[in-house]
Amino acid sequence: MATRTNDRREALQPGEFIEELEGIRAAWRENFPFRIREIMSQDEFPRLAANKRRAHMGGDINHRFEGERYLNATDKGSRRMQLRKLVDEGGQDTVGGPQVSHPLLSRWESNAYGVSPEEVDALEKGDCDPGELVRRGWWVAMMRDSHFGVSIGSGMVMEGENKIQSDKLLAAIERDKQRFIEWGVEDPDKALENRHEHAGIDIDHADFNEEVARRFVNTPELQEDLRRAYILRLQMTSGG
Q1: Which of 12, 83, 119, 225 sees the fewest Cβ atoms within 10 Å?
Q2: Element containing residue 214 per DSSP (H, E)
Q3: Each residue of 102-160: pLDDT tens digit?
Q4: What is the C-alpha separation between 110 and 49, in angstroms, rounded?
């Protein structure tokens, strides 16, 4: 999918712009449908473990780009909400809440597939996968260099997808939980909490991302920046 230069002299109204972005998503999904993860056999565990090993290489990226969004926000209300999101991602338990950090949830999922805690430690201290390094480098740089409305608004791609698909994601997780119990996987709830968390809390995050885009991505130039970032993020996360 190619980006296009926005030659409009006036910005779209917020609702029109969000509708356009969702139209871009719908067109992309015709060729690259969103796949609901469901684990049908324990034979899939080695492949899933390999994917998780690649993701752990070079350390956790989550706080880097979320932190850039926080530092970049000039609107006090948006900055405060981004701080709350950082707490969600970094662990509500740090301020007396119930949820642990997303990196720890990711580790629990990896452990269930057979990746040991010691191996995760070693992977995170090592070099990043080259392909991941390029993708992560672009993503973090975009957070740092873009207007905060564009960087936060770009979260509509993945967190917005999880919001759209939330019911289906949660249903698939519940079916996987029953399979994990049958297969004797230790602590199925813990193993699946990473997926469960993203299928739930991403609804609030997606709403925040969209609200920021509606309020602050309000010029032709900013809308084109977000349009381009939105398309690139779709390509980056869909294997296109």
Answers
A1: 83
A2: helix 188-216
A3: 999 999 999 999 999 999 999 999 999 898 899 889 999 999 999 999 999 999 999 99
A4: 6
pTM of the shown model: 0.88
Q: Which of 1, 61, 6 is nearest to 226 (CA)?
A: 6
The two three-digit tokens of residue 199, written as one number: 């299928």
Gyration radius (Cα) of the chain, Å: 19
Helix ranges (DSSP H) in 57-165: 62-72, 76-90, 102-112, 117-125, 130-145, 148-153, 158-164
For 186, the token pair is 């230790």
DSSP assignment, residue 13?
P
* Residue-by-residue DSSP string for 25-58: HHHHHHHSPPPPP----GGGHHHHHHHHHHHHTT
Residues 6+ apart with CB under 8 A from 43: none
Cα atoms in the 13 Å half-sphere on the side-chain side of 1: 23
